[in-house]
Write a structure and sequence with these properties.
It comes from Streptomyces phyllanthi. This is Roadblock/LC7 domain-containing protein. By secondary structure, the protein is an alpha+beta fold. The chain has one domain: Dynein light chain 2a, cytoplasmic (Beta-Lactamase, 2-Layer Sandwich), CATH 3.30.450. It is built from 5 helices and 5 strands; from the N terminus they run H-H-E-E-H-H-E-E-E-H. It has a 5-stranded antiparallel β-sheet with strand order 2-1-5-4-3, with helices on both faces. The protein is globular and about 45 Å long.
Length: 142
């Protein structure tokens, strides 16, 4: 799995996904891809410049949202109660609304440690945001 990330093909796929999310998602102001196994923001596009320290923190914040200690504990309780033995994570998508923006985080289907991130204006139609972002993610297997 790690060797796949080092190939230029993987890099091209990541950049293609970021571009698709940025252009196909309504009211999108930024998109990116985070690798939670390495803690790296692999690629991003934005309409505005952001301080580098904010971009550096994005990967860590994404990891906390999906795999923070308490989140993992919740997943483990659900798995235990339901008799689930797979390593598949329960939380696949997370929507966060800030004062002016809507942030959508989506795990990649085949690579559970890779998350696509889309940031839109708060006026976005959330149904369309989910539909378009899901379509872009599904059409770009990493």
């Amino acid at each position: 799995m790690a060797t796949k990330r080092m190939t230029s093909g993987f890099s091209d796929q990541v950049m293609s996904l970021v571009k698709a999310l940025r252009s196909e998602t309504p009211d999108c102001v930024a998109s990116g891809v985070v690798d939670m196994s390495t803690g790296m923001l692999l690629s991003y596009e934005t309409v505005e410049s952001h301080p580098p320290e904010v971009l550096d923190l994005l990967a860590g914040a994404t990891l906390d949202l999906f795999q923070g200690r308490t989140v993992v504990m919740i997943e483990d309780v659900f798995k235990e109660r339901r008799g689930v033995t797979s390593d598949q994570h329960y939380f696949q998508e997370i929507l966060v609304n800030s004062e002016n923006l809507t942030h959508l985080f989506i795990r990649m289907n085949d690579q559970q440690d890779v998350v696509a991130v889309v940031v839109c204006r708060k006026s976005v139609n959330v149904g369309m945001l989910f539909a378009q972002a899901r379509r872009a993610v599904q059409s770009h297997s990493l």
